Each structure stands twice: as structure tokens, then as C-alpha cells.
Amino acid sequence: MSELNYYSKIASELGVRNDQVLNTAGLLDEGATIPFISRYRKEVTGSLDEVQVAAIRDRLQQLRDLEKRKEAILKSIEEQGKLTAELESRVQAAETMSLLEDIYLPYKPKRRTKGTIAREKGLEPLALQIFAQETGQPEALAESFVNEEKGVNNIEEALQGARDIMAEWINEDLDVRKKLRKLFIEEGKFTVKVIPGKEQEAIKYKDYFEWEEPIKSAPSHRVLAMRRGEKELFLMMDTGPADADALQLIEKNVLQASNSCALQVSMAVKDSYRRLLKPSMETEIRLYSKKKADEEAIRVFAENLRQLLLASPLGEKVVLAIDPGFRTGCKLVCLGPQGQLLQSETIYPNEPQRKTHESGALVKYLAEKHGIEAIAIGNGTASRETELFIKNIGLPAEILVVMVNESGASIYSASDVAREEFPDHDLTVRGAVSIGRRLMDPLAELVKIDAKSIGVGQYQHDVDQTALRNALDDTVMSCVNGVGVEVNTASKQLLTYVSGLGPSLAQNIVAFRNEHGPFKSREDIKKVPRLGEKAYEQAAGFLRIRNGVNPLDSSAVHPERYALIERMASDMGVSVKQLIKDDGLVQKIPLQQYVDEQVGLPTLQDILEELGKPGRDPREKFEVFQFEETINEMKDLKVGMKLPGIVTNITQFGAFVDVGVHQDGLVHLSQLADRFVRDPKEVVSVNQKVMVTVMEVDVSRKRIGLSMKADPFAKTSREPAAGKAVRKPNVAKRNNAESMEEKLNLLKQKFEK
Questions:
Q1: Among the record's GO biological process terms, what is one (predicted)?
Q2: Among 389, 410, 440, which residue terminates a domain?
Q3: Interval 367-401: pLDDT, tens
Q4: Predicted TM-score (pTM) of this structure
Q5: Which among 47, 51, 59 has a CA at the least distance from the CA of 23?
Q6: Is the separation of the CB atoms in 488 and 547 below 8 Å?
Q7: Which of 364, 292, 300, 285 is closest to 332 using CA atoms?
């Protein structure tokens, strides 16, 4: 398939025009990034967004990989001297990797098989005669193939060899494999049981001790849970349709008569399915279901990460951050407006020391000394106790006290990044710094941590790690470039994710900044060693310089459009600086007047929007959140309580909410709203403030059940809504209990009594 055909196919699949795919592919092949393409090349792509550009990139890569595989297969078959024009045409026409491999299967180099050995014994002509299923007795046909010198000692050995050859033909039959694959997908089931004797060890997988559900509708989290249980040797899992259904399908394709030869073919069918087709299809369907489960889990993780990264920043404030603790005390750090460490101390306000007076005096002294504007408290051990202590020491009312999610802070504190930033401070200081900086700018701080450690994923260690890393990198890059980066204060890690840069250029920017002082204009960035024109083009629009020489340097307007804006300002009789400050003037700009071959209305409208709010942070405004002050531990919770909480993670089966007791509660999918909810993201997002009702508290198992319904205890009908199917997972068990024979036996016993 030619590249042009690729573009046509992708355009059809995505519902866009051919030229949009063609132009986008060209930009990608030139090294342009997804954020740059979607933001600054709208005229070229027809205003495709980041999701569409990424879809084109990924599908194009799949099709190119398919083409490479075709080339390798054709070369292999040609080297065997078996390539025909018809076979080459079939290979070239294959649109999926599975069909391509099916076509290649008969020509694929194999180890010696039963069929190979039978062919070496000269039994292929016998197999052909029997497979034709014409009249005649197989035994009579086999008689002439008995040859002790070739290792065929009797008629049965000859027939067995013929069946071995036929079994391989059936296994390699394109039509059979295609139909069987469809049967596995459409009718196949996951059938799971606990390994006998491991019931206690496998208690966390109790739901799957006797479980059955269709492959095509099994949700991602259950597929990954079953596979993990199997990998840990707690569960046994069978994958596929009923054997009888599969055999019937194959026989329908292969059997052509009802005679003695057909009986031999039927025996070959059973052997082929048991020994070759079933293991092959099971492997393929397991990979298929795993890929689907991975894609969904990765999608959920990436969306959760996006919401966490784009959480509202407090901004450039002087912050006192606390990493709370009991026995080892609470580590305090004071941070300047750019996150620089000013001072660190340790206090012991909680058990067992209870030095509340001394600790309170030190906090008040630090607050006054540094002009503290906000206090960030990590939400781990002793967080609620520390929060209560802070609120009771008499600090000025204008100082905000905020609980901060500290997931991953310990990972950061032990990382090379943290050691490089704070070589003279220990883990506790670094952890507290991370907590404080997260309050000031979550995005800038969280990019320093491996995304898998942030705690917003679902089975993240079970999914394809390369696919996960790529998806999370895409998400981080999208968020970083969507917000923009202040080049004079950004860390190397944050700059790494700027379009066109990467780790090496990010390091060069920081080194240049440290040696020569702050950048005064975007033009100065070109002076950074090894930062060429291409990298500058990709990065410049996403790098901000506050209070720079050019007022546009603090905006998302790309430098390539500066001349256009200067022309606009000149036409309006004002300077660029005056134009930016006057929203009324901006709205009067006649955009149509500036449309030309390079710049269309999409870019002009983006420019207009940016001139109206140059450099404004697109994230939502920060709002202070408070937990219920009387609830600090799980034992304080009572069924029926209504509490404020923060959504910390979203999965396919519901949302986890922090209510301030060191253990997140689960709002199940069925409890997210008073209406039917198919996807939790319809209702909630990470970091969202919600009101929940306590439904269940299990202190021993550390489980909290919550609801977001208006009246979660109201009785509802157990009947399914019209047109809704009721999922009954334990099909095997239910079918056994409800078999007709058992029903009759139960009735018989009843009447006998």
C-alpha cells in the first residue's frame, strides 16, 4: 500500500479530509511536535486538535509497521522460491497484522512438526486423497503407503500420518482461522477458578474464585485483575468459546461428505483444534483482550494525570510547607515566591513528644520572619493532627492553610533530581519542599516525578510499559505546552517537555541562564548552544519571558507573527504595548484584512484571544478546601455522615475520594449520581471538590464506601430499566444450579416430603 493510500485510509477512519492527513503527516515527518502542529499550523492541518494529530501519528506508524512486515514476509517467501503473483497480491492486500500472519503461516519456517515428519514418510498423497472425501475406504487407500523402510509399519500409522498433515492444513486455512478468530472474540468467555489449596493466599482475588464473563464485554480493570491473579499463580484462566461450538464451525468449513474418509477428516479437525488452533487462538485472543484492557487503563491514567497536572496553582507566594509526622516530628521548610528554599526546621507538636508550645512559637516566628502567605501540609501520616495544631496557634487569619496531596513526594525526595537540587539536605527536607511547591505550581513540580508514582493510575504496572510511557509523555507535553513555561524560572525537568527541546537543550538553557543571567527576550534564546532554528521554531511560542523587552514575549503568540501584530498596531495608530493593554482596541481589529496565504482566520482568532489575555494562566483559579474538622480517623466515620472530600483517582468502576482520614473512600460507579453513569468522567474529575455520604466503614480491611447521590439510602426498584441488560457474572455456577435436571430433582424431593 502506498503512502497516499495510507492517508486516504486514515482520513476515512478518522472522518477528516485526505489533505489534512497528508499535511499533518508531512509536518510530523519533519520533526514537528503535536502541540506545535495543533497550535501554530492550523491553516496547514485544517485546525486539527491534539487528539486528532496524535491519532494520525499513531495510525500512520501502525500502517508503516504493517508495510515493513509485508516486505519481510515477501522476501522470506521469495527466498523459498514459492512467491507467486497471486500470493504477492494477497500479502499486499492484507489490512491487518493478524490476516497477514495467517497468509504467511504455511510458508513460515517451522521446527519439525508431526506433519513434517509425515511428509518425509511420503504420506502427503494419502492425505490429499482422504481430504478430498470421495468414495472409498481410507484403509484401502492407506495400504499402498505402508513402508517399513520409511517408518510406516502399518495402516494405522499411515492414517495417523495423513491426519497429522490434514491437521496442519486445517490450522493454516485462512477462512477457518478468520471465522474461528471471530468466534473467540464474539462468543469467547473468560472462565476463571482459584487454584485448589490457595484459597487463603488468594483472598484478595475472592471475586474471581469461580467467575465467567464474555471476552468482548469484560471491562479493563477485571481483565487486568484476572491476568494478575493468574500471573501470581492464584488463579487458573481459560479463554475461548465452548469446544463444541468451535469444532462445529471448523467441520462446517472442512467436511464435504458423510463417509469413511470424512470421518478421518473429522478426527483431523479435532486434533487440529486441540493441538494447534485452540492454543494459537487463545494466545491471540489473550493478546487482543490485554491490548484492549491496556488501552483503556492507559486512557484512564492519562486523563487522570492531565487533570492532576492542570490543578489550580496558588501562584508565586511565600509558603511554609510541612511534611507531618509523629515520632520523627514535622519537617518545616520556608519557600520563596519562585520555590527557592529559604530555611528548614523540625518541630514536634504531635505524639509522643507533644511540644506544642515550642513548636507553635517557632512556626509563628518563621511566618513573621519570611512573610508567609500560605501553609501547605502533606496529607500523609499525622496530617490532620498537624493541621489542627497549625489552626490553633493563633496565626494571622489571612494565611491560608491547605492540605496537599503528597503522593510521590517520597519518590522525588530520593531521586537524582532532588539530590541535584538540594545536595546538602536530607530526604525529609526535599520531601517538604516538594509539598510546598506542589501548592504553588502542581505542574512544575509533578513533572519531576515518574508519572506512574503519582497515584492516579489503574493497574499501571500490569499494562504495556512502552505504550504507557508514550501516552503519559504525550499528556505531560500537552499540559506543559498548553500552560506555557516561564523560561527564566523553569526547572530543567519542566523545560524538557517544551515542544522541540528535550533533556539536552533544557540543560543548555538552564546552564546559559545561570551563566549569563535571565533572558531578556525570546530572541536571546537563540544564543543557547546547539539550539538551532528548528528547535527555536518549535519551542518559542511555548516559552514565556515576563517583563521582557517585547511585551509579546509573555504571551502565546509565536514570534513568527510579531511582524503581523506590529502591523495591526500600526494600522490602529498605537504601539504593540498600547494595543495589548486596550481590550476595546483589540476587539476592533478587522481580522479579515490580515488573511493571506500563510495566515488564516484560525490563527488570527488565536492571536486576538491571546492579545486579550497575554500570558494569563489557563488553569482555573485556586480555591481553598477544608475537610470536616471533627473527622480525622476512620473510627470517626459513621454511616450516613455527609462530608466534603477531594477526588484523588478515577477508575472504570468509580472514583476514590479523600475525606481526611488517611484512607481514600470509594464512590462506586452506581453511587456517583442519581442517574445512570456509564463512565465516571461524566461526573467527576481528579482534584474536584465533592460532597459525599458515608455508606460503609470497614476499619479492619481499611475500606470506606461513599455515595454522591442526593439520597443514597432511598429504596430503589431492583428491576432493570427497560432495554437494559443485567450482567450476571457467575454464569457457570448459575447454569449448574438452574439446570433442568436439578430443578426436577428438587421438585421430586419436595413432593416426596
A1: translation
A2: 440
A3: 999 999 999 999 989 999 999 999 999 999 999 99
A4: 0.85
A5: 47
A6: no
A7: 364
